[in-house]
Amino acid sequence: MQPGAYRKRYPIMIDYRTDSHGIVEFTIDGPITKPEYDRIVAEIDAAIERFGKLRMIEIVKDIGAIDSAIWWPDLKWAATHMKHIARCAVVTDKGWIGAITRAAAAVLPAEIRVFSLPDVAEARAWVRE
To answer: Which InterPro entries does this UniProt record tie to the protein (predicted)?
Structure first.
């Protein structure tokens, strides 16, 4: 690329990390595309293969449009993989996400709690208990 040339940058809206103890943390901050979703699912599948059960921290700062091609595959993935999630903290200030999460927690096998964004350190500590 020549100096001064303009290069389009496409921000990654999902940041993913895992540690050596099977704790997965990802942050959503914008719209979710099918390629990003596929990348994250592959990462989580690899972590399940490595650790068996995972503990997760999902931080939702902002959520934009979600590619409609994700909905059905995500439901199928969740139906077969939730047994591999031991504990999950959902950290968000989006009220509707908290409400949906609390409703789902009643029927899912994982321990799930909702935390507000300022309480992310508390969420991380709870997941590690």
So the answer is: SpoIIAA-like, SpoIIAA-like_sf, STAS_dom_sf
Q: Which amino acid is at 87?
A: R
6-30 per-position pLDDT tens digit = 333 345 578 888 888 889 998 998 8
Per residue in 77-112, pLDDT (tens digit) is: 888 888 999 999 999 999 898 998 999 888 888 899
pTM: 0.84
Range of the domain at 109: 14-128
**Count: domains in the chain:** 1
- Calpha distance 104→63 (Å, rounded): 19
In-domain check, residue 60:
yes
Q: CATH number of the domain at 81, please.
A: 3.30.750
| 15 closest CA partner among 78, 73, 66, 57 | 57
DSSP E strands in the chain: the ranges are 14-18, 23-32, 54-66, 85-92, 111-115
User: Based on the number of CB atoms within 10 Å of its own CB, is 115 exposed (0-12), middle (13-18) or buried (19 or more)?
Assistant: buried
